[in-house]
Amino acid sequence: MTRLRKNTENGFTLIEVLAGMLIISLGLVLLLPMMVTSMQANDLARGSTEASMLIKDKMEQLKNTDSPVSGSDTVGLVDRIWRVTAVSSNLIQLEVTINWTDRHGLDHTNTVTSYMSTR
Q: What is the distance between the alpha carbons of residues 4 and 45, in angstroms, rounded to a whole number?
């Protein structure tokens, strides 16, 4: 009498391992465009944050000056222009504009306007 032996070895076959690797690699390839888009968005956010900080710094300098005047300067690769305009006899408009080019060659501009009373 022949006895049937039950296969007691547990594990994966080569076909199952290859199919799993194919599914994982396909998923990673499909996620690649999302990662590139995320990196570009992070780069734009970094540039925008730096520009906002430069605008804030200049705006604070202008507000802490008794009689601010228009002008411009360059901070690193960023051009900064500020305009001081008399709105009325006791009110001044302060406008600070930042222009920068990102690493992809795209130009960006950020402008903030504020008002200050004259003393």
A: 68
The distance in angstroms from the start CA to the end CA of the chain is 113
CA dist 93 and 13 (Å) reads 75
pTM of this structure: 0.69
Q: Of 107, 102, 110, which Cα lies nearest the Cα of 80?
A: 110
Burial 2-28 (b: 16+ CB within 10 A, else e): eeeeeeeeeeeeeeeeeeeeeeeeeee
Domain 14-117 has CATH 3.20.20.70: no
Calpha distance 42→64 (Å, rounded) = 33
Name the pLDDT band for 104 (thresholds 50, 70, 90).
Answer: confident
